[in-house]
Amino acid sequence: MPANIDDYAVIVGVNHYAELATLKGPDKDAKRFHNWVVDEKGGYVPPDNCYLVLSEKDSLLPIQYTIDQCFGKINSRTKRRKGRRLYFYFSGHGLGLSWNDTALVLPQWDTFFRNHALSSGDYRTTLIESGIFSEIFFFFDCCRNRKVAVNGAPPSFGNVMPAATAGACRSYVYSASEFTNQAYEALIQSESGSLQEDGIRGIFTESLLRGLRGAAEKDGKITSLSLANHLERDLPKIAAQTKKVQVPNIQGDHADTTIIDGLTVNITNVQITFTVSGKKAILEDSDLNVLKEGISDVNEPWIIPLSKGLYTIYYENEQSDAKPIRIDGTIKTLSYGI
After folding, report:
1. What residues contact residue 160 under an 8 Å CB cut-off, 6+ apart?
2. Which residue from 157, 161, 101, 91 is spatially nearest to 131, judged by alpha carbons?
3. Helix/strand/coil (H, E, C) string of 207-229?
4. Which residues contact 48 (CB under 8 A, 6 or more apart)?
5. Fewer C-beta within 10 Å: the chain N or C terminus?
6. β-strands 290-295, 280-285: how paired?
7. CATH architecture for residues 267-337
8. Burial of 75 (0-12, 13-18, 19+ CB in 10 A)
9. Whole-angstrom Cα Rg for the chain
10. Where in the chain is the domain with CATH 2.60.40.10?
11. What count of other Cβ atoms lies within 10 Å of the Cβ of residue 261?
12. How many other β-carbons are positioned within 10 Å of the β-carbon of residue 74?
């Protein structure tokens, strides 16, 4: 399968700040997201189409112009051949400006130079109105709590007028937290129970990459909607493991857009054991379709392969005691008793 030659990415990670607390996760998280973007099993974007911008400890870089230059290079490369998709990822400090606008804070920010930040809303509008891309995915791993008298800067590039094709652009914004709330980085426990080898990372990016690497798969695809559903389920659980409360915020086009196709459908082999014999047991999916029914036997469990979804097992005429079965696709075998 050829690379997605019409896709591009701008990826920014900022650990170091003039006045705000130094972070430990953004640079590593930006590199991890970049690895997914260029991976043949991930975004499969050509490395030359990806722009990775990281902070430097003592120089207070990057400045806004450094980031905007990346978009300028993309603009030059798409003059002859329109782009298909853009990924814009930012990890660092953030401040909430409104329900749909976040100040993506740059290293120079302090209480005097309090507008050294990018306006996510202005960047979204300008990039959509450029007409360069059919799809734009924004991923913002940063806080959205408020500070008084803070503004985000619009991009230094612009459009003479909105492109005729701007209205056809689908855009999706995945934010690490809800407006006015914080986002966190933590030493995260893996699904096997061990601590991650590369230390502290952003909770949002951890959940995001789990989803993009397969946990958000539905019917062999990862889509804008399946990714949103995954983040809404998975991210709060990861946060709870670190004794934090964090809920993502997702905004965007109502149309469901495929991010990755052709994935292997995740199947979980479910063993259902019975505590009584001689009753008619019924297994249904979330649409009440009967997947299996038969007479229970305490010595003969059912072994059933199930894809990701919600299911119910119950005895005939005992629906009020039905037991839910939740399959998230991340575990190969599960056991349930009824």
Report:
1. none
2. 161
3. HHHHHHHHHCCECCEEEHHHHHH
4. none
5. N
6. antiparallel
7. Sandwich (2.60)
8. middle
9. 23
10. 267-337
11. 11
12. 20
Is residue 315 helix, strand or coil?
A: strand
The closest alpha carbon to 270, from 214, 332, 217, belongs to 332
- Which residues neighbour 17 within 8 Å (Cβ) at sequence distance 6 or greater? 23, 60, 93, 105, 107, 109
Task: Please state which of the four CATH numbers 3.30.390.50, 3.40.50.1460, 1.10.3720.10, 3.30.700.20 is assigned to the domain occupying 7-260.
Answer: 3.40.50.1460
- Stated as kind and residue range, the H or E segment containing 102 is strand 101-105
Instruction: Tell me where in the chain the CATH 3.40.50.1460 domain(s) lie.
Output: 7-260
Q: How far apart are CA 306 and CA 131, in angstroms?
A: 42
Q: Which of 271, 252, 42, 32 is nearest to 128 (CA)?
A: 252
Tokens of 172: 């999706």
What kind and span of H or E run contains 76? Answer: helix 64-77
In whole angstroms, give the CA distance from residue 322 to residue 255. 34
Residue 72 φ then ψ, to 5° = -65, -40
Q: Exposed, middle or buried, 64 (CB in 10 Å: 0-12/13-18/19+)?
A: middle
